[in-house]
Amino acid sequence: MPRLRNLSGEEVLEILRGFGFERFSQRGSHVKLRRTAGGHVQTLTVPIHKELDKGTLQAILRQASRFVPATELRGQFYGD
Questions:
Q1: Which of 10, 28, 44, 59 is surrounded by the most beta carbons within 10 Å?
Q2: What pTM value is reported for the model?
Q3: 79 in any annotated domain
Q4: Looking at the 3D structure of the chain, how many domains does it have?
Q5: pLDDT by residue (tens digit) across 18-39?
Q6: Contact residues for 33 (Cβ-Cβ < 8 A; gap 6+)
Q7: Backbone angles phi, psi at 6, to 5 degrees
Q8: Which tens digit of pLDDT belongs to each residue from 37-46?
Q9: Integer Cα distance of 50 and 18 in angstroms
Q10: By C-alpha distance, which of 13, 6, 5 is closest to 48?
């Protein structure tokens, strides 16, 4: 069964940029990403830490799955 990869906040930002999200604002160590699709504004928040906790990664994945097909995201977040 694939395992959730160890990812930093910057790596998650790069993954989400690949799906059209752009840095919108930052407050402290949290970056807001935004994209407009189908006339709807979609916003995600990612903490910029060296390594994100597994629960944090799962929460980001769950939130991003509202906007991007989960099958496309899982390939980026999960590894062998």
A1: 44
A2: 0.90
A3: no
A4: 1
A5: 999 999 999 999 999 999 988 8
A6: 13, 16, 17, 21, 22, 23, 24, 43, 44, 45, 46
A7: -80, 115
A8: 888 899 999 9
A9: 20
A10: 13
Give the β-pairing of 40-47 and 3-4: unpaired
Measured CA to CA, the distance from residue 68 to residue 54 in angstroms comes to 20
What's phi and psi for 12, nearest 5 deg?
-65, -40
In a domain, 46, yes or no: yes
For residue 50, the 8-state DSSP code is: S
Interatomic CA distance for residues 77 and 75, integer angstroms: 6
Residue 44 structure tokens: 């995600």
Cα 73–Cα 19–Cα 49 angle in degrees, nearest 5: 70
Q: What CATH number should be reported for the domain holding residue 32?
A: 3.30.920.30
Residue 48 is encoded by which pair of tokens? 């910029």
Q: Is 15 exposed, middle or buried (0-12, 13-18, 19+ CB in 10 A)?
A: buried
